[in-house]
Amino acid sequence: MTSNDKNRADLGKDPARVSGMFDQVAAGYDRTNTAMTFGNDALWRAATTRAVAPKPGERILDLGAGTASSSASLARSGAQVVAADFSPGMLAEGRRRHGAMRNLSFVQADATALPFEDGEFDAVTMSYALRNVNDPKTALRELYRVTKPGGRLVINEFSTPPGKLFRGAYRFYNAQVLPRVARVAGTNGDAYDYLNESIREWPDQKRLSAWIRDAGWQDVAYRNLSFGIVALHRARKPA
């Protein structure tokens, strides 16, 4: 078994394997994302920040923060932001890039057993990370637990384009082109083989909305970005 095989995550989503895979790609992660999304990642990040609507003095959890690009975007509002991730390699890269921001802190955390008190955050968010959790329903309940009554949830995740023709072209791109783009960008292409698999098997917008509702959230809604390549889900914890 090669080292890539050892850290090549699969749909079993073993936390150690997924974390190891993200440790491997941390240095080139943002560069590869920009290349494979043709720059749309910046637009999606801006849309997520607007949906969270951070305010100075609020406490916000960015779970699955990766290299903390989304966390830094939130922290520029003046909110106190916690960038949490289970990959130490990703967190180290995030600290290297954004560690000078005084209102941004970093915590290694398991999404299914968060190391935070009940009702600790005004808003919680995840971008492209819920899909990598081996028990996403438990993660949604944990996010609910650590959110204050009346607090906000924003989940930005790869999703299912509703148009049949576009959906077919998108799936071809993910399966045939995306891993090659990753290798050209100098990143572990095996990780992006897993990315394609995890996107293909992930629930569509309506089913994820139902999961969010079942975890206790109310006012659940979503809107598609980039023809449904990703979907921005929003909800609120009952006051």
From TrEMBL:
Residues reported to bind S-adenosyl-L-methionine: 67, 85, 110-111, 127
Gene3D superfamilies recorded: Vaccinia Virus protein VP39
Catalytic activities: a 2-demethylmenaquinol + S-adenosyl-L-methionine = a menaquinol + S-adenosyl-L-homocysteine + H(+)
Keyword tags: Menaquinone biosynthesis, Methyltransferase, S-adenosyl-L-methionine, Transferase
Enzyme class: transferase
Molecular function terms, GO-annotated: methyltransferase activity
Family annotation (InterPro entries): SAM-dependent_MTases_sf, UbiE/COQ5_MeTrFase
GO biological process: methylation
Taxonomic superkingdom: Bacteria
EC number: 2.1.1.163
PROSITE patterns: SAM_MT_UBIE
Keyword Transferase appears in the UniProt entry: yes
Pathway recorded for this protein: Quinol/quinone metabolism; menaquinone biosynthesis; menaquinol from 1,4-dihydroxy-2-naphthoate: step 2/2
Job description of the protein: Methyltransferase required for the conversion of demethylmenaquinol (DMKH2) to menaquinol (MKH2).
Family of the protein in this entry: Belongs to the class I-like SAM-binding methyltransferase superfamily. MenG/UbiE family.
PANTHER family with a match to the protein in the record: 2-METHOXY-6-POLYPRENYL-1,4-BENZOQUINOL METHYLASE, MITOCHONDRIAL, METHYLTRANSFERASE
Protein name according to UniProt: Demethylmenaquinone methyltransferase
Organism: Microbacterium sufflavum
